[in-house]
Each structure stands twice: as C-alpha cells, then as structure tokens.
Amino acid sequence: MIRIDQDRHINPAFVASMEWDHRHYMNGSDSVLIITMWDGKVHRVKHQPWYLNGPDAHKVEREILAAMEKGDAP
User: Fold this and answer.
1) 7 contact partners, CB below 8 Å, separation of at least 6
2) What is the end-to-end Cα distance of the chain in Å, rounded?
3) How far from 16 is each of 36, 38, 50, 54, CA to CA, in Å?
4) Residues 12-51 pLDDT 10s
5) Domain of life, per the record (predicted)?
6) Helices (H), the chain
7) What Rg do the C-alpha atoms of the chain give, in angstroms?
C-alpha cells in the first residue's frame, strides 16, 4: 500500500493510469496528480509538501512507478 495523502492509501497493483494537471492562475499555480484505479475511481493528489503533513505528489508518483517496475503491480 502506498500513502497518497494523510487519510488515503492505495494499492499500486490496481492503478490503471496516472496523469498531471498543471493549472496556472494569476496568483500562482497548482499541480495535481490524478490517479485512476481499475474500477474507475479517481484520486486527486494536490502537491503541497510545504504544509504540515502535506502530500508530495511527485514522491507518490515515484513510489507507484517503482512498485510497477519491481513487479508489485501489473
């Protein structure tokens, strides 16, 4: 299981796809990792490592990819 934020964990074996949503606003920008599971459930992980217990979406992506390469996921 991989922790994607403070309250949610996912099994990398059931990840169907991942993509980034980069939004740019007048006062800054947001980066969100969108994880789609095999059953169609979508998890959005907003990259906020500078907050207390904020998720690091880049780390989550690396952990999922490493699990896939290692063979823990299809």
Assistant:
1) none
2) 14
3) 6, 5, 28, 24
4) 999 999 999 988 776 778 899 999 999 999 999 999 988 8
5) Bacteria
6) 57-70
7) 13
